[in-house]
Amino acid sequence: MSIDSTEMARSLYQSGVVAFENGKYREAVESLERANSLVARNTRFGGEVQIWLATAYEAAGRNQDAVDLCEQLKRHPDIDTSTQAKRLQYIWKAPKLNRPKEWLTEIPDMGAASSNNDKTKFVTNTSSNTQKAPQKEYVDLSQVNTEDNRFIWVALIGVAVTLSYLVWLNFNA
């Protein structure tokens, strides 16, 4: 493999990773597939490119391609690549759990909103089982112990004694 193809593969790899992180999964797949064709697949970098490619496949909805690529990568000479491929394949082959609709929050499609902000109205979904704000609770003052329990006086005397002692130490030092 020449230095030019290695540079080109690294450039395509970086653009694929950036596209993936920006949510452009089809673009990421294209860049990573081109990088994969330029790199030696049995190297550590080749394994890294293929792991990212498998992840991009899965994100783009090509689950079977992702699982098949991980099956190949499980026999990769780089131990980190093969371990990561096994873990990813395990996750992607796991059965999908059904979540109750109450657990999900629907996010409105803002692409359909008009460009005029003054005319756009947002409606919040309020369910019928929402709780009302708590009522103010009034306390019967005849039930409250309002007698002086002398704690404040003891605390104030303790603070005064401590301050006096500190002032005395300051002048005698």
TrEMBL record:
Keywords: Membrane, TPR repeat, Transmembrane, Transmembrane helix. SUPFAM superfamilies: TPR-like. Coiled coil: none annotated. The chain crosses the membrane at residues 151-171. TPR repeats lie at residues 9-42. The keyword Membrane applies. PANTHER family: ORF03 PROTEIN (PTHR36761:SF2). This is Uncharacterized protein.
